[in-house]
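Work through this protein:
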Amino acid sequence: MSPLIETGEIISRTFSVAAETEISTVAWNPEGDILAAARSDGVIDLWEFNAANLSASHLGTLQEHEGWINELAWSQDGRLASAGEDLLIYIWNVQTLEREKALFGEHDSPIMGMSWGPNGQLASIDGNPQIVIWNVEQEKKTTLLSAPYRGPITSVSWSPDGTKLAFGGNSYNVYVYNTLYVQSPCSWLTRNMTIYEWETYFPGEPYHATCPELPTGIVGEEADIYQVLDEGFEAGIAGDIATAVEKFDEAEAQGLEIGAWDWNDLCWLGGIYNQAELSYFACERAVELEPDNGEFHDARGISRALLGDFEGAIVDFEIFVVYAREFDFPEDMIALREQWIEALQLGNNPFDEATLAFLRRE
């Protein structure tokens, strides 16, 4: 217990930093043993605080800024960010007293606030109705968020889990953004596109992993095996599910480990082309590999309904609805599944040709 808590006395200490300079802002590191004090001349003093005797020793200075420093912010791993009138943000290693990173080019007025996220990203504001989110390691902006009002943002704070960003200004309101989908996509995605998805959105383009550190859903690099599976997807997209199944079997026989998303794509294609009897096994494979993925249950639900398993289809669509609400899927997509559930509960199959044609156009 500190002397302050034990005695209830207010203990004053004065640390001299420099002659004729104002202190613009101060900030403790996460451990509470180092205090950073920014001066009006652009210099930051670092003090190590001794809780036993309430003394402090000067560790050194950090000097890169020109002019007034408006904000200091410590990361959880002990790095110090500084920002101010010169429109620059510097990231410091306080052990070596050296600058590690410089962030610039996105602010056009003095930086007024910063907040670190637990994943190492940094949010900064400059008095305009915008928030810049930085990838500090790459020294570049990842996202620019706009406030839903015209006035300046004067304060910003990231939640401890990094999923929410709170900010406020002169609108008399506090706003909270879900930051999951505004971070660098590779930071929240769990996989790359499947070959089917790639062919759908980038027809004719050679396949490559957009996020090299993430799985593709397919293990195996041989071009000829990829080609076999690619032919299977092309057949499935054209409605030739029998050929698609043959190509999947051929690729698997050649040693390709087919991922859950690819099995799900085959399941989906078989359902929307009303050939579930050929592709239902793929639905089971996908759900077996990733039982918590609501999208896989959605695809299997269509095939189950087409095969007469209404109770199983209802269960799958109910799982999807819960999943879709959790991950903020479009409301019209959720409402459509709820309509399917109601029809199935009445003993009706909602998947007539018009509905399947609609799904093929999605």
The mean pLDDT is 86. The chain has two domains: 3-184, 189-361.
